What does this fold into?
Amino acid sequence: MSIEGQSLQEIEIDRISKWFGNNKVLDEVSLSVKKGEALAVIGPSGSGKTTLLRCVNFLEDFQQGTIKVSDEYIGYLQDRDGTGSRQRQPESDIALMRTKVGMVFQSFNLFPHMTVLRNITLAPTRILKQSTQQANETALQLLERVGLKDKADVLPASLSGGQQQRVAVARALAMKPKAMLFDEVTSALDPELVSEVLDVIRELIGEGMTMMIVTHEMSFARAFSDRVVFMADGKMLEIDTPVNIFENPQNPRLVSFLERFRKSYKI
Amino acid sequence: MDLIILSLPLFMKGLHNTLLMSLGATVIATVLGVVFALIQIFGNIFFRALVEIFLYLIRGIPLLVLLFTMYYALLYMGFRIDPLVGGTVVIGIYFAAFMAEVFRGGLLSVARGQWEAGYALGLRTKGVVLNIITYQALKVIGAPYVNTVIMVVKGTSLVAVIGITELTFVGRQIVERTLEPFLIFGVVAGIYVVICYSLSLLARYLERKIGYVN
It folds into this structure.
């Protein structure tokens, strides 16, 4: 805690656990992301890293634990009586909390029936009650930032995957979020389109945006993140600086994960 | 030919009632169908169960039997409602059960990611459904919806048995006077075909209008 009593953490995940039926997919995961920090989350498929990310904006319910974004609970409030029981937020509060967290999906999920511009302005006009003119201006600035200003009036289907994903980033940024969540955002892209999306993320890191990046792009995680988390079997097994994670891994699971990775990629 | 021209006023009256009932029943079926579908997707377990039982019941009863049952039940209870209104309501409720499935299937056919993208931006369920899902669902709903409307139009012919002067009833009246069943019922069938074909054309047109590349 800093002097003003304000937390230095943007995202605080406190002992969350989640089951799909009998399968425990998240096992008492605790994790904080500092303001302005870029945290990369790596791990094998099925490790729970995407599920963890989706819990942060409550697209995924969880059975135990709490999550705070900017010092406010999302999804569940911690009960004050200290019994550890939680209280679920009403839908309106959850929706409000979600506006503070931008999310970019693996499969872009642009709205196919709206122009690129409308994709970006929908939420600002509907939720933040911005005027159309104001929202359009912001959207055009954001499109310029991701290099797609000339595509404002086209439908998403006429864009390449990399372009769609950059629009998706702009759409999330239009809500002026406190933090961004990236869920394997380059996994569905053709290899030659990966870098244009990573470039946008890298710029955001440079601007000091707080973010959690679930990724298979090890070289990107290594070069541009502030810390790296390694997950396997729903557990957080190691968290450290990129250099330590990649040069001096401690956990045997991480060692073998990186070895397997090095066999197929040069990192 | 003279026969048909002479019967024209009667035909027109029948056609009028057929169209009126079709329109009324379609509106009722659409509104109730949307409500049922929304309850099935978003409702709590109690309302969901209630709607589901109701839908299974309705879908399991032939329309003719339902018409008879409701008609005599109402008569027995002493209600004097206009059979035209009563018939329209029964047909509307009956096809609402089918419409519910059309709408439910359409809404759920929209990719999960579209819902999630809406929620992630901070929209609530209502906003997601209205802004993002509905339009995309229309593409899927269009064809089966028109199909159901066509069934509604043809379903109205059954109310002839409770004495409503719609197209089929009128046809029978004219046959009784003229003893030309083939000709007259041929004309009746032709009129139904024209109505239903026009609906299909309208559906095609609308489908093209909301077409976007997915």
